[in-house]
Amino acid sequence: MCKGKESKMDSRSLEKRLSSVKETAEEIQGLARWCLQHRNHQHSIIQAWSRALRKAKVPHRLTLFYVCNEIVQNARRKKLLDVNQHFATAIKDAIPLVRDEKVRHKIVRIFNIWEERGIYDSKFIAELQEIMENVGTVNATENEVVLAGFQVSIFLEYLFFRMFYSDGIHLYFLNII
C-alpha cells in the first residue's frame, strides 16, 4: 500500500479526468488502466465515476460507461473480482441516466458483452435490463407517493411566507387559504 501523500486519492482531480476523457480507445484504456493500478482506492474511484456520470451530458455518459466496461473486463481478466463487485451497485444506480435513445442500445450491448464474457452473471444482467426497461414505471410510482403527500395549502403558505420575507416585509401569516 502507498504511504504519505500517495495514499490519498484526489477525487476532484479524478472526477475532472473522468469528465474530460475522450471517446478514444487510447484514452479509455489509459484511464481504466490507471484506475486498476490504484484499485486500493476503488471506493473513491467509483464515487468519482458516479459523480462524473451524474454531471455529464448524455453522450459523455456513454464514454464513462466505456471506461467502466474497460475497468470491469480487465479486472475480470486479472481476477480482481472485488473491483467488479464494488462497481455493481454504482452501475445499477447509473442505469436511469443512460436510458436516452441516443445511447440506450450501446449500453444494452455492453450488458450483453458482460454476460457473454462472464463479467457479471445472468441474474445481475437481467436486473440491469429490467431497470433499463422499467425506470419510468418506478419513477411514476415514486412520483405518486410524493404527490399523494403533497398539500397545496402548505406549499402556498410557504411561498407567501418566502415572498413576504424575501421582500423584507415581516407580516404575520395571512390566513387566506
Question: Describe it for me?
Answer:
Helix 1 crosses helix 3 (42-55), helix 3 (42-55) runs parallel beside helix 5 and helix 4 (58-77) packs antiparallel against helix 5 (81-94). It is globular, with a radius of gyration of 22 Å. It has one domain (7-151): Alpha Horseshoe (Serine Threonine Protein Phosphatase 5, Tetratricopeptide repeat), CATH 1.25.40.90. The longest helix has 28 residues, at 122-149. The model is unreliable at 1-7 and 137-141 (pLDDT under 50). The protein has helices spanning 11-20, 25-37, 42-55, 58-77, 81-94, 104-116, 122-149, 152-166. The protein is mostly helical. The protein has eight helices and no strands.
Write the layout of secondary structure elements.
Elements: H1 11-20, H2 25-37, H3 42-55, H4 58-77, H5 81-94, H6 104-116, H7 122-149, H8 152-166
Helix pairs in contact: 1-3, 2-4, 3-4, 3-5, 4-5, 4-6, 6-7
Helix content: over 70%
Q: Main beta sheet, described?
A: none
Strand content: under 5%
First-to-last CA distance: 64 Å
Specify the CATH architecture: Alpha Horseshoe
Q: Taking Cα atoms only, what radius of gyration do you get, to the nearest Å?
A: 22 Å
How many domains, in number, for the residues?
A: 1
CATH class: Mainly Alpha
Overall geometric form? globular
> How many H/I helices?
8
Average residue-wise pLDDT: 83
Number of strands: 0
Structural class: mainly alpha
